[in-house]
Write a structure and sequence with these properties.
Shape: globular
Structural class: alpha/beta
Number of strands: 16
Number of helices: 18
Distance between the termini: 43 Å
Helix content: 25-40%
């Protein structure tokens, strides 16, 4: 079906594929295809290729433009066929996803013979570019992933994750970091940040000019942050309940104690937001309400629409994981952080895979240093027990939004019992947490909610410091019945949304008091300096041996 994609040959359909598409629609698609193909063949000089993969000068020759234009036409044709298949929506999405993956892999830019930039590079370097490319390829094969940044340029605690502070608590699941004040006075209520356990915390503390942590400290908040341990095989049986109870709830208790405050402000990011909300629901069931405010960054509570990730998850897939690493039959294992990272990269293959295949292997270049991409490649494992519970009860069955459906830490969960004010942030181009799904949290949480929509994607939308004055965000103080209605009434505001957030949070900070240089208290002693120990632990194959 995809034969000849990289050379621009006409795609073909086998009879059994054609039978899945209504004949009338198939005829329309084929007519459109041959009309556009004839235009390319008869007037190659008029071809205009609008795709950054083919934007270099070497692609401007007639032959190269024909190759690129025919490939793009074939791609369009195959996507039209995939979208026209007469089947249920989930199957159609799987077909479409697979088709897109094949199309991206077979781009003429990914092959030496059909990439004029690569050919010119080989000639100009007298073959040195290919030699360097082979060295790069062999190095990446040892690592098990495509290099997307110069990893030697960064070291955690040296030039990344450098905001000053100290670990004040440690257990088998996390370290709690308390950060050094940067202002003479601070809000009386402390501020706890819970990052995702699927990645390391320092996405919130990259470098001083783009650190969320440092920004919040500079606004006068006493910031505490959970640094999750990178699990090894000994932790394969650790559960979602453990992450909620021994993780988030314990962190809340420690922060309350050190801060001498019954109520605190709490932020959860992505999976950290789902864990945090679960923890607050457990405490609400016990008639405990420690959150003066709740902030959720790009977080799913309602998993009805999970976007592109939905193509990976069905009953068969979840059962397979449960039977191999999730504890069925007493067999526990680990979900590899490397495998998770590679999966997420292929959600955006042209940006995070094929671009680097071309640059690193075909052209022999080395990727430049980029802090966000360094973090992206610093993978963490997940305990099989926890991972499988998460898959089944969120992505597969969407149980968290069903009052009383699941029991966590001995309590039947009802997210509607969380009634503190909430600031809910989503990113407009997020392919992991669709913003419309994040908006549904405004109807699940029963406090006074505020929703803000930022530009860009899952990470870049969040890490948008005011000093750079980039992008924009949408604001609408009214919570509408639907996400679309909210956006229709929203105002677009240029720049970062961070000032909007910190202004909102001030009202829940309490009175200001003189900042203290003391870390921890009599019960919770000051330990290592930030960033602590856990964040420096690297994933390795040795960590993934299965426990039976």
């Amino acid at each position: 079906m995809f034969a000849g994609m990289n050379t621009g040959a006409t795609p073909s359909l086998a009879p059994h594929h054609m039978a899945l598409i209504p004949q009338e629609r198939l005829a329309e698609i084929q007519k459109e295809y041959f009309t556009e193909l004839a235009h390319i063949a008869t007037n190659p000089e008029a071809i205009e290729v609008k795709d950054r993969r083919f934007s270099g000068k070497a692609w401007h020759s007639s032959w190269s433009k024909v190759i690129a234009a025919t490939y793009l036409l074939n791609s369009k044709h195959l996507l039209s066929l995939a979208q026209a298949v007469d089947t249920d929506e989930k199957t159609r999405q799987k077909i479409l996803f697979t088709t897109e993956q094949m199309i991206d892999a077979l781009s003429p830019s990914n092959f030496i013979a059909t990439n004029p930039e690569v050919l010119e590079n080989i000639i100009s370097t007298q073959g040195q570019s290919i030699q360097k490319g082979i060295v790069n390829l062999l190095g990446d094969m040892k690592k098990g992933k495509v290099s997307i940044t110069d990893e030697s340029a960064f070291e955690v605690g040296k030039n990344i994750a450098t905001t000053e502070g100290h670990v004040v608590f440690r257990n088998e699941l996390f370290e709690l970091i308390q950060y050094t004040p940067l202002t003479e006075t601070v809000f009386s209520r402390p501020y706890l940040m819970v990052p995702p356990c699927i990645n390391k915390y320092y996405i919130l503390d990259l470098q001083p000019d783009n650190s969320v942590v440092r920004h919040m400290v500079s606004q006068g908040h006493t910031v505490f942050l959970v640094s999750w341990k990178n699990p090894d095989a000994s932790m394969a049986q650790v559960s979602w309940e453990d992450y909620v109870g021994k993780g988030v709830i314990k962190a809340i208790e420690v922060v309350q104690d050190i801060g001498a405050s019954k109520q605190i402000n709490i932020l959860g990011f992505c999976v950290g937001g789902t864990l945090t909300t679960s923890a607050l629901a457990v405490l609400a069931a016990r008639d405990q309400h420690p959150a003066a405010s709740l902030t959720l960054f790009t977080t799913l509570l309602d998993f009805t629409n999970t976007g592109i990730l939905d193509v990976f998850i069905d009953e068969g897939m979840v059962e397979l994981r449960e039977n191999t690493i999730g504890g069925k039959g007493g067999k526990y294992g680990m979900m590899s952080g490397l495998d998770l990272g590679n999966t997420f990269s292929f959600l955006r293959p042209n940006d995070l895979v094929w671009n680097y295949v071309v640059e690193n292997y075909l052209k022999g270049n080395s990727p430049p240093p980029f802090d966000l991409l360094y973090w992206n490649g610093d993978s963490t494992n997940l305990p099989g027990n926890m991972y499988c519970w998460y898959l089944r009860h969120t992505y597969l069955q969407n149980d968290l939004i069903k009052p009383g459906k699941v029991t966590i830490c001995g309590e039947k969960i009802d997210l509607g019992k969380i009634k503190c004010p909430a600031y809910l942030y989503a990113s407009q181009e997020d392919h992991i947490v669709p913003w419309q799904s994040a908006y549904q949290s405004t109807h699940i949480l029963k406090g006074k909610n505020r929703f803000v929509l930022g530009a860009s994607g899952h990470i870049a939308g969040v890490i948008n410091p005011p000093a750079k004055n980039k992008r924009y965000y949408f604001e609408n103080n009214k919570i509408e019945p639907t996400a679309e209605a909210w956006l229709e009434g929203a105002k677009q505001i240029p720049g970062s949304w961070w000032p909007n957030y910190t202004a909102w949070l001030e009202q829940f900070g309490g009175e200001r008091k003189p900042a203290s240089k003391t870390f921890g208290n009599a019960k919770y002693k000051k330990l290592e300096a930030a960033p602590g120990i856990y964040v420096k632990e690297k994933s390795s194959l040795d960590q993934l041996q299965t426990n039976n």
